[in-house]
Amino acid sequence: MKCRLIILWAMSFFVNAEQIVVASDIWCPYICTDNSGYVVELTQQAFASVDIEVKFESLPFQRALTLTSQHKLDAVLAVTAEHISTFSLSSNHVPIGQYTNDFYTPVNSNWQYSSLKSLDSKLIATILGYDYGESLNRYLENHNSHVRTSGEAPLKTNLYLATKNRIDLLIGNRYVIDYTAKQYGYSSDIRFAGSENKSTALYVGFSNDDKGHSYASLFAQGIENLKQSGEYQAILDRYQIAF
């Protein structure tokens, strides 16, 4: 009888729990498939601590940004301050990670990043909708040899292009590139070629309406709950993330 009551209570919680719908593209170990990834887990657990259930949807990043700005999604994960401004999103500016611009080439290349000038004449692969910082964004806008990929697994596409020597280099985050390359068996076909050595904070961007403002506030409260309980650091440690 006691077991039955517990099951009924659990069913009642999930039926009646408020649900927030968040989205982003796959960017493991930040955002992975099957509701995993440290940003996904932080978001889920933070909202769970204030009795809100999170439904995560995998979407191309540009589409997730657009739908959130149109109030068709509640939030988009792993955005920068530039995204928040450009798409008029709501945010509490609680950082959930950081991003660096790192450079990778095909394994047979000896090119090394030294400055923006060193990118001249190189065919560069990036991802549509990503923010690479003011300086690099401006450079890429005026760079003719530039491939922008999209879809639900754009980094996989860029890695494939590098392994086939169809691009000179790709730009991304070292955590993500190393993880994804290992996942798809590309690790031995690419090489790390330096970093811009600038860190950009990442946030959760919420729709800019009353509901979004409320969720932003509740998320800040939830993150504080996780920090006080120790679960925040436990999630970071599970994914070997430090920031």
From TrEMBL:
<feature type="domain" description="Solute-binding protein family 3/N-terminal">
    <location>
        <begin position="19"/>
        <end position="242"/>
    </location>
</feature>
<comment type="similarity">
    <text>Belongs to the bacterial solute-binding protein 3 family.</text>
</comment>
<keyword id="KW-0732">Signal</keyword>
<dbReference type="Pfam" id="PF00497">
    <property type="entry name" value="SBP_bac_3"/>
</dbReference>
<protein>
    <submittedName>
        <fullName>Transporter substrate-binding domain-containing protein</fullName>
    </submittedName>
</protein>
<dbReference type="InterPro" id="IPR001638">
    <property type="entry name" value="Solute-binding_3/MltF_N"/>
</dbReference>
<feature type="signal peptide">
    <location>
        <begin position="1"/>
        <end position="17"/>
    </location>
</feature>
